[in-house]
C-alpha cells in the first residue's frame, strides 16, 4: 500500500500536466488541482486501497474541474458587442444615494405630523381630506403642515442642492 507522499511524488507532475491540458489555463489548473488534492487527502485511505489509485484521483480532478466550470458559468457575465452601449455614460448611483440621504435627513428634522403629511402626500399621492382623516386634523391643517414642511426643507442647510 502506497503512502500519500509516495503517490504524490510519483504522480503530481503528470496530474499537473493533465489538469493544465484540461483547463487551458495554468492558474486555473493550479486551483483545480489543489481543490482536488484536498479531496484526495481526506479520502486517501479508501483511494490507496483501490485497484487503480491514479485513475481514482484523475476522476476526482475531472469532477472538481467540471464542478468549478458549472459554478463559473453561473457567475459569468457576457460582454455586450454594441460599442454604443459600452460608450454611453450611465448615471452614477451615488447621486441617488446622496439625494435619498438628504431627503431622509430633511424628513427626520420635521415634526411628526408634518413628516406624516409629507410622506402621505408624496409617497401615496393622497389629497388633503384623506391625509386629514389619517392624522386626525382638518384639511386646512394638512395644507398648513405641508406648507410649513416644504418651507422648512427648502431652508434647511445642505451641502449640495444639485
Task: Describe the protein in words.
The chain has 162 residues and is mainly alpha-helical. The protein is 77% helix and 0% strand. The protein has helices at residues 4-23, 26-42, 44-48, 53-75, 83-87, 93-109, 112-123, 128-135, 139-155. Helix 1 (4-23) packs across helix 4 (53-75), helix 7 (112-123) crosses helix 8 (128-135) and helix 7 packs across helix 9. The longest helix has 23 residues, at 53-75. The model has no long low-confidence stretch (mean pLDDT 87).
Quaternary organisation of the protein chains: single chain
Stretches with pLDDT under 50, minimum 5 residues: none
CA gyration radius, whole angstroms: 33 Å
Q: Write down the overall geometry.
A: elongated
Determine the fraction of residues in helical runs and give it as a percent range: over 70%
Residue-averaged pLDDT: 87
Sheet-strand content, in percent, reads: under 5%
Give the CA-CA distance, first to last residue.
76 Å
How many DSSP E strands? 0
Number of helices: 9
> What is the ordering of alpha helices and beta strands?
HHHHHHHHH
Largest sheet: none
Structural class: mainly alpha
Amino acid at each position: 500500500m502506497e503512502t500519500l507522499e509516495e503517490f504524490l511524488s510519483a504522480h503530481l507532475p503528470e496530474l499537473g500536466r493533465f489538469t493544465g491540458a484540461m483547463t487551458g489555463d495554468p492558474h486555473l489548473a493550479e486551483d483545480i488541482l489543489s481543490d482536488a488534492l484536498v479531496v484526495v487527502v481526506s479520502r486517501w485511505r479508501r483511494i490507496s486501497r483501490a485497484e487503480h489509485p491514479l485513475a481514482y484521483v484523475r476522476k476526482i480532478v475531472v469532477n472538481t474541474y467540471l464542478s468549478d466550470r458549472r459554478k463559473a458559468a453561473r457567475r459569468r457575465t457576457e460582454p455586450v458587442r454594441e460599442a454604443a452601449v459600452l460608450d454611453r455614460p450611465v448615471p452614477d448611483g451615488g447621486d441617488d444615494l446622496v439625494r435619498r440621504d438628504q431627503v431622509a435627513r430633511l424628513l427626520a428634522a420635521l415634526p411628526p405630523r408634518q413628516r406624516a403629511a409629507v410622506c402621505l402626500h408624496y409617497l401615496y399621492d393622497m389629497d388633503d381630506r384623506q391625509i386629514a382623516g389619517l392624522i386626525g386634523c382638518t384639511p386646512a391643517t394638512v395644507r398648513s403642515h405641508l406648507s410649513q414642511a416644504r418651507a422648512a426643507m427648502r431652508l434647511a442647510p445642505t451641502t449640495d442642492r444639485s
